[in-house]
Amino acid sequence: MNPISVDNVVTTYRFYAPLYDRLFGAAFEPGRRALTQAVRNLRPSSLLEVGVGTGLTLSQYPSTSRIVGIDISTHMLDIARERASKLTNHDIKLAAMNAESMDFPDGSFDCVAMPYVLSVTPNPEKLVAEIRRVCRKGGTILILNHFSGSRFWWFLEQAVRSLADKIGFRSDFCFDEQILKYDWEIESVKKVNVFGLSKLVVIRNT
Asked: Is the pTM of this model over 0.90?
């Protein structure tokens, strides 16, 4: 797995911030809809979104939940704050934070949602340890991410590998290594986005 640095992530999303919605909004929207529907079904009193980006999911979360969104990119957060300011019926707080080292106390949230973040973080294991720490025991963790292994996508992964390395995205990201190795309880796995490019994984934080 190729290394990704924090500086690499920040630089990448500084460039992509004004373009992100047009480049990745519609393409990844089915996955976001599946994630936010899962949150609405849960109706958690508190929700943390890790990697809130430009805030594309914020309007779809329950208005009854206390919502906190964090992102390492201040440029992405500027757009998210503009979106959040229009959602007057939601309780939303946004903050710049490195998700591999969060400021929240243990067990701060009933639910942690992580859309399209796990394969772009410098240290996935450290991130997983942090989301498990800040999610209360028995709470729910939702991971939405691309995972390699599909025969169809293998050819695409090879084609974009060099570009993916430059922008800080792991195209070869194994589900077994990144999800199944942990001692948490996987409640469901759902394929989302075109040709099942991504998976939505619902996890009980045991």
From this structure: no
